[in-house]
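Worked example

This section walks through a single chain of length 282. The input is the sequence exactly as stored; nothing has been trimmed or padded.
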Amino acid sequence: MTLRDKLRIIIFEADTKAGRRFDVSLIVLILLSVLTVMLDSVPQINAEYGQQLYYVEWFFTALFTVEYLIRLWCIEHSWNYARSFYGIVDLLSVLPTYISLWLPGAQFFLAIRVLRVLRVFRVLRMVRYVGEAELITQALAASRRKIIVFIASVLALMVIFGSLMYVIEGGSNPAFASIPHSIYWAVTTMTTVGYGDITPTTPLGQSLASFIMIMGYGIIAVPTGIVTLELNEANRRQANTRTCSDCAAEGHSREASYCWRCGAALYQRSRDRESERADAAD
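Given that input, the structure is written out below as tokens.
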């Protein structure tokens, strides 16, 4: 295998010992970099150790920049990775530090602080290194249509209940001054948040509120069941960290020969080389 193939397997996959070590090391670096951002936001610590934290942040930025460039180099179609979710997160994790170089001056201090806070996006990078993260992603993607239909139904119910509460309470309760205010109350009640800033006062309104509260508990359980069902299905397919060399998609079943996202043959170059060696031996 070429150096490019070896790096791709180590960086994008976790089935090998080197890949697992790389993932663990990167998680530690991400956590330390996020801790640096948090400490830098504390005024007392920043006043005493601000310069040291600045150098530490540049150290992390340099490491993550090199890692990002290697990822672009070792994947077959780098643009597909660059515009993927993780590719954008990787870019956002290093851009703020570089942008701060072009925004000097006290008048841009607040803008620089905001850009530096964006570095906490690095914590999202840890998702890919958790063993079952791809299974959860596949389960959410598979259940998105059901969840969208469920959310649309819940929104319709909120509009209906809010309108009913406006009819019931609107004349005697100034808190339900309009249908949008009543819908806001329905949202907080059905989701069991219950801020208490708007409350019904009539017996009929309180009865409707009690019914909505009880319904809210059942509504919360529905998306959990949908995702759990798809998660069991994804787990049954025994998804792993096997990565496509073209688009960096993960979660292929062990017997898969082609990528589920782009259709490229998995490890086609390696199989071609093995065939060439077999032919040469014959």
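What to look for: The mean pLDDT is 77.
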